[in-house]
C-alpha cells in the first residue's frame, strides 16, 4: 500500500491576502458578533486592495474597516450596523460620498444566494422582498438584482435571486487540520453555504488540530478539506468580536472603535493606529495587549 | 405606585403581546428583553429564537448580537440562517417577530434602509437584515418605534419591510406567509390596525400623554376611536426581572 | 419566575401509527441501510393502512414491506432494491400487477423536493434528469412531475421539481428528549430536510435522553423539538438494517428476507411470521431473539 | 502467470481509470472495490465519497450500502445528500463516477429503471438512485456492464441516465455539468467513445475474447478501430489487496 502524502495547505495571513486581486468578489463569513474574519480585513487594508466586492449577510466591524479604508467599492449585503451600539459610520459616510455602493438584500435572500451558488444552480426562490422597494430599486445590478416570477407549478408569486459564486470565500472557524478539514462550534450562520459557493476557499482558524482527531470524529467536520484551498491559523482572528468557545467580544475596544468612526478623523486615527501602524496580526494583538486578550478568553461551560 | 423609566414601560408593554407557547424571534435590545420578560412571567413556554441559529434560548445575560454566544448555553439547538429564516420563519412556524424602524407609514410599512432619496441618500441605515424576512413571514409583527413626527410619515423614503402594503388584499397578492403588523408600540401609545382598511389606529394611550400629543406627532391621519383606554403600567415584579436580565443596564440604562 | 411545564411528546408505536390515516402522504426517513424506520412500517401493516403515498430517496426493506402488504399504492422515490443483494422483489411484483405506481425521480431531485418543502417554496431548481425519459414520462403526476425551464437570469436550461409537504414526516434517530429534541449520529442522508417538510413529524428514537443533556450540547441537536409532534422510543427500530453507533445490520435476516420475497408465497410467510404474527415491536424482537440482537450491537470505535 | 477470476479482472481494470488526487463517487460493489484498490495502489490521494454523506472514506471492510457505517470511522466528514449530490456533485467537484445498467445504447445512455414498456413494465429495476445525478454531473463516467446482447441495445426501454444523449452538442444543450461517459468496461472488453460522433468504440479486448465475440454481443453497430490492444491483466499485488478489502468474498465471491 502506498501511503498518501498529506497536503499541507497552511500559509500566512499575508500570503492568503495576496491571493486576492483587485476587483475580486468575496464571500465574507461570520454573522453579527460571531466569528467575523477581522484579521483578514486588516490584511486586505495593509495590502491596499481596491475595488473588491463583498457578499455577506451582515458582518459588522470588518465591513466598516473595509469600507472606511476604500478596499471595497461594492457590498451586496442585508445589514450594516454595529448591533447594540449604532449605525455603521464608515459605510454611511462612504455611501454618502458615492465611494461605496450597497445593493440591498435580506438575510434570507443572501443566504439563499449562497445556497444557490453552493448547489451550482443560477437562482433560488424565496418569499421575501415582494411588494417593497427591495424589488423596485437597484443600485447597480439592475434586472439582475432579483425577479418576481409566477411559480411554474402553483402560479404563486415568488422572488428569485441570482446565486453567487464569488472568486473567494473567506471563512473563520474554531479548528482546522492542515489539509483543511474545519470544525465550527456554536451557530453556523451562513458559513456552510458560503464556504461551498466560492471558486476558492480560504479558511482562517484559531487552532490547528491533527487530521487523526478529525477522522476520529468525522461528524464534527463542518467544512471538508476538499473545498479548502488555503488554511491560515492565528489566535484572536475575530477581535474585537467573539469566537464561540474561544473568546468573548471586547466591548471597550468595540465602543472605542464605534466612537472613533463617528468622524473621518477618528476613523483615520484608528486605521493608522491599529491597522496600518502595525506589521501584522501579532502587531495588532500586541497593541491590544495580551493581558486584556487573556481576560476575554471563554469560560466553560458558557463559551464566552 | 411603581416607578419606572420610559424604556422599562415599553419593554413591559411589548412583553404583554407575547403569548404562552409562541415561537418568538427575539433579536436584541428592547424586543429581546420583552421576550425574556414574557417567558419569565406569563409565557413560560414561549420559545425564543435568534435568527443567527439559536433555538429556545435562555440567556442568563442579555446578548448584544443575535449571534452572541450568550444565546448558546442552555438553548436546545444551535444552527444557521437557512434553518431559522428559511425552515422556521418562511416555513410559517414563527408566531411573533419584533421590528423597529426609522420610518413607518399608515399601513405599517417600514423603512430601515435610507433617509433621503435612494439615488443620493442622506443617511445609510442598517438595511433589512432579517427585517423584511420577518415582516413577510412572521404570523404577527410587533413594531417598536420612538414617537416622532419625522418617523410617522405619509410616504416612506424607502420601503424596506412590508406592513399591510397598500391595504386589504395586498399581502395576499404576494402570497405572504405572515399576517403583517398587529401592534405598534411607541413611547406615547399603542396602535393597532383597523380591520377594514388595515390603517393604523390608536389603541391605548400611555400614562402621561394625551391623544392630541399623539396625533400631533404623526404625519398621516391617525384613526382615533371614541373610547381609548390607558396602557397598563408595569408591575414591580416585571421591573425586577428586567433588571436581573440586564444588570449592567446595557439596554435599560443606568437609571431606574 | 414561572417554571414552564415541559411537554412530554412520547406515545407508543401503535398510537403513532394510528395518527396516520388512509390516503395520507409520508416523508420516509433513513437512507440505504442506515436508520430506516422499519418498526413503523411493521405497525402500519399491522394496522392495515391503505393507499398511503410515500416520498423518500431510497429506503429498502421498509419500502418492500409496505409495498408487499398493500399499505402504499404510490411511491415517489429514486431507488428500490436491497443494495448488494438484488432487486426489490415485492415492489417489482406489485408494479407488474398494477397495484403500485412508482413516480421516478433521482436522489438529488427528491432531496431538493424535501428542501423546497422545508423552505416553504413550491419548487426547487436542479441540473439532473434533463434529456432523459425521467423528464418525458410520468406515472401519475403528469405536468406536475417536473418541468424544464429557462433560468430567468442566465437563460440556461434547468429542471424544476415541485416541493413536498407531506402529511407526516417519519424519521428515525439515535436519541431524543421527551420534548422532541433529536440527535443524529453519522450521516444525515435526507433527514434534515425531510424532518422539516412534513405537516406533522413523528420521531422514532433508540434512546431517550434528558432535556438538560440536550441543552448542555445544543450543537448536537439535528432536529429541534419545535418541529416534533410525537416521539416514540424503542430499541432496534431499524432491524434488520443498521443504526449508526447502536447496531449493525443483520445480514442473515436480510438475506432470508430477500430470498423469501422472491415469491409471493415466501413474502406471505415472512409477513405472517414476522409482522402480522406478532403483537408489537417487542414481539418481533423476541422472534428475532435477544442473543442475536445482542451480537449486532455496535463496537467502539467503529460504530457497527 | 497470475490467476484471476472475471470479477477480479474487471475490478482491476476499472481501478486503472481512477487517477491520483481525484474525487471519486464509489458506491458499493465492484466500483467501490475498484476505487479502494486504486487508492491503495496508484492513486493514494484519491478521495472516496459516498453519496449518503461520507467524505474521504477509508473503510477497513467493504460496505454493503452507500450509507453503511463501515464508511464512517476514519472518514473526514459525515454529512448528507444535499452536500454530496448537490454541493459536491452538481457543484462540479466530482471527477469520477461509476455506474452499471441493465441496458446501454450506442451513445452510452443507460437504463436502470424498467424492462419492457413503461406503461406495463415487465421488470421494475432499481431506478436512478443517484445514477442520473452522477451521469449528469460527474466530470467522467465509468460504466461497468456484463457483456450481453440484451444489454447493448439499439433503443433503450427507458433512458434513466444520460450518456452522450443524441451525440455531439446534446449534453451542452442541457448545460450538463459533467462530460459524460468515458469508458465502458464489460467482461469481454473496454470501450470508449469516438470523439467526433460520441458513439461507442472498441478500445481493448480482454484476454481470451475475440473481436467477433464482442461484436456479436452488441445490438448496434460497434465502431472497431484497426488496431485493438489487449486489456492489461491484474497484478498479484492488486489481487491481494482486493481480497484484503473483501475477505468474506461478498463481492469477489468465494473462489479465486
What is the CATH architecture annotation of the largest domain in chain B? 3-Layer(aba) Sandwich
Q: Tell me the overall shape of chain B.
A: globular
Question: Which structural class do the helices and strands of chain B define?
Answer: alpha/beta
**What is the ordering of alpha helices and beta strands of chain A?**
HEHEHEEEHEHEHEEEEHEHEEHHHH
CATH homologous superfamily caption of the largest domain in chain A: Glutaconate Coenzyme A-transferase
The largest β sheet of chain A comes out as: 9 strands, mixed
CATH-assigned fold name of the largest domain in chain A: Glutaconate Coenzyme A-transferase
List keywords for this structure.
heterotetramer, A: 304 residues, alpha/beta, Glutaconate Coenzyme A-transferase, 2 domains, 9-stranded mixed sheet, 3-stranded antiparallel sheet, 12 helices, 14 strands, B: 256 residues, 7-stranded mixed sheet, two-stranded antiparallel sheet, 7 helices, 13 strands, 23% helix, 17% strand, globular
Structure description:
The complex is a heterotetramer, with two copies of chain A (304 residues) and two copies of chain B (256 residues). Chain A has helices at 13-19, 38-46, 61-68, 89-97, 107-119, 133-136, 191-197, 211-216, 251-260, 264-275, 281-288, 290-296, and strands at residues 25-28, 52-55, 72-77, 81-82, 86-87, 101-104, 123-126, 147-150, 157-162, 168-176, 182-183, 200-208, 221-223, 230-233. Chain A is α/β, with parallel strands linked by helices. In chain A, strands 1, 2, 3, 6, 10, 11, 12, 13 and 14 form a nine-stranded mixed beta sheet that branches. In chain A, strands 7-9-8 form a three-stranded antiparallel beta sheet, covered by helices on one side. A two-stranded antiparallel ribbon of chain A has the order 4-5. Chain A is globular, with a radius of gyration of 19 Å. The model of chain A has no long low-confidence stretch (mean pLDDT 96). Chain B is α/β, with parallel strands linked by helices and 256 residues long. Chain B has two domains: 1-94 and 232-256, Glutaconate Coenzyme A-transferase (3-Layer(aba) Sandwich); 96-231, Glutaconate Coenzyme A-transferase. Chain B is 23% helix and 17% strand. Chain B contains seven helices and 13 strands. Chain B has helices at residues 6-15, 29-40, 81-90, 131-137, 170-173, 211-216, 236-245; strands at residues 23-25, 47-49, 54-55, 77-78, 96-100, 103-104, 110-111, 114-115, 123-124, 140-144, 181-185, 189-193, 200-205. The longest helix of chain B has 12 residues, at 29-40. The model of chain B has no long low-confidence stretch (mean pLDDT 95). Chains in contact: A-B, A-C, A-D, B-C, C-D. Chains A and B meet through helix 4, helix 5 and helix 7 of A and helix 3, strand 9, helix 4 and helix 5 of B.
Amino acid at each position: 500500500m502506498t501511503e498518501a502524502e498529506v497536503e499541507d495547505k497552511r500559509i500566512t495571513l499575508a500570503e492568503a491576502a495576496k491571493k486576492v486581486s483587485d476587483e475580486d468578489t468575496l464571500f465574507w463569513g461570520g454573522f453579527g458578533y460571531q466569528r467575523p474574519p477581522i484579521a483578514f480585513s486588516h490584511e486586505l487594508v495593509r495590502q491596499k486592495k481596491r475595488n473588491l466586492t463583498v457578499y455577506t449577510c451582515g458582518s459588522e466591524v470588518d465591513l466598516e474597516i473595509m469600507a472606511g479604508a476604500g478596499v471595497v467599492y461594492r457590498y451586496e449585503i442585508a445589514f450594516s450596523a454595529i448591533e447594540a451600539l449604532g449605525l455603521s459610520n464608515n459605510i454611511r459616510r462612504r455611501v454618502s460620498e458615492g465611494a461605496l455602493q450597497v445593493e440591498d438584500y435580506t438575510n434570507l435572500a443572501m443566504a439563499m444566494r449562497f445556497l444557490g451558488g453552493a448547489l451550482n444552480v443560477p437562482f433560488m426562490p424565496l418569499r421575501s422582498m415582494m411588494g417593497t422597494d427591495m424589488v423596485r430599486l437597484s443600485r447597480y445590478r439592475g434586472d439582475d438584482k432579483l425577479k418576481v416570477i409566477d411559480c411554474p407549478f402553483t402560479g404563486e408569486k415568488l422572488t428569485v435571486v441570482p446565486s453567487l459564486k464569488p472568486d473567494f470565500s473567506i471563512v473563520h472557524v474554531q479548528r482546522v487540520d492542515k489539509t483543511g478539514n474545519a470544525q465550527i462550534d456554536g451557530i453556523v450562520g451562513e458559513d456552510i453555504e458560503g464556504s461551498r459557493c466560492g471558486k476558492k476557499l480560504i479558511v482562517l482558524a484559531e487552532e490547528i488540530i491533527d487530521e487523526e482527531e478529525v477522522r476520529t470524529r468525522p461528524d464534527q467536520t463542518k467544512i471538508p478539506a476538499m473545498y479548502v484551498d488555503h488554511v491560515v491559523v492565528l489566535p484572536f482572528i475575530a477581535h474585537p468580536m467573539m469566537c464561540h468557545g474561544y473568546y468573548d467580544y471586547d466591548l471597550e475596544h468595540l465602543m472605542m472603535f464605534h466612537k472613533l468612526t463617528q468622524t473621518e478623523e477618528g476613523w483615520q486615527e484608528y486605521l493608522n493606529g491599529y491597522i496600518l501602524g502595525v506589521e501584522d496580526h501579532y502587531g495588532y494583538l500586541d497593541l491590544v495587549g495580551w493581558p486584556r486578550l487573556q481576560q476575554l478568553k471563554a469560560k466553560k461551560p458558557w463559551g464566552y | 405606585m411603581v416607578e419606572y423609566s420610559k424604556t422599562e414601560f415599553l419593554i413591559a408593554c411589548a412583553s404583554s403581546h407575547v403569548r404562552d407557547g409562541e415561537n418568538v424571534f427575539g433579536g436584541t435590545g428592547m424586543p429581546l428583553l420583552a421576550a425574556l420578560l414574557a417567558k419569565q412571567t406569563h409565557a413560560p413556554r414561549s420559545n425564543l429564537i435568534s435568527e443567527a441559529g439559536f433555538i429556545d434560548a435562555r440567556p442568563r445575560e442579555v446578548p448584544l448580537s443575535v449571534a452572541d454566544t450568550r444565546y448558546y448555553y442552555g438553548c436546545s439547538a444551535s444552527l444557521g440562517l437557512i434553518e431559522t429564516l428559511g425552515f422556521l420563519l418562511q416555513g410559517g412556524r414563527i408566531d411573533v417577530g419584533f421590528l423597529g424602524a426609522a420610518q413607518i407609514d399608515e399601513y405599517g410599512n417600514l423603512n430601515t434602509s435610507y433617509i433621503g432619496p435612494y439615488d443620493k441618500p442622506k443617511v445609510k441605515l442598517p438595511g433589512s437584515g432579517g427585517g423584511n424576512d420577518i415582516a413577510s413571514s412572521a404570523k404577527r409583527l410587533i413594531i417598536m418605534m420612538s414617537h416622532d413626527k419625522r418617523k410617522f410619515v405619509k410616504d416612506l423614503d424607502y420601503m424596506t419591510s412590508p406592513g399591510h402594503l397598500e391595504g386589504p388584499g395586498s399581502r395576499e397578492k404576494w402570497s405572504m406567509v405572515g399576517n403583517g403588523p398587529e401592534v405598534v408600540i411607541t413611547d406615547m401609545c399603542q396602535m393597532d390596525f383597523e380591520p377594514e382598511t388595515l390603517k393604523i389606529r390608536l389603541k391605548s394611550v400611555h400614562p402621561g400623554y394625551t391623544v392630541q400629543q399623539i396625533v400631533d406627532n404623526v404625519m398621516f391621519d391617525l384613526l382615533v376611536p371614541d373610547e381609548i383606554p390607558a396602557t397598563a403600567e408595569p408591575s414591580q415584579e416585571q421591573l425586577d426581572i428586567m433588571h436581573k436580565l440586564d444588570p449592567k443596564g446595557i439596554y435599560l440604562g443606568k437609571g431606574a
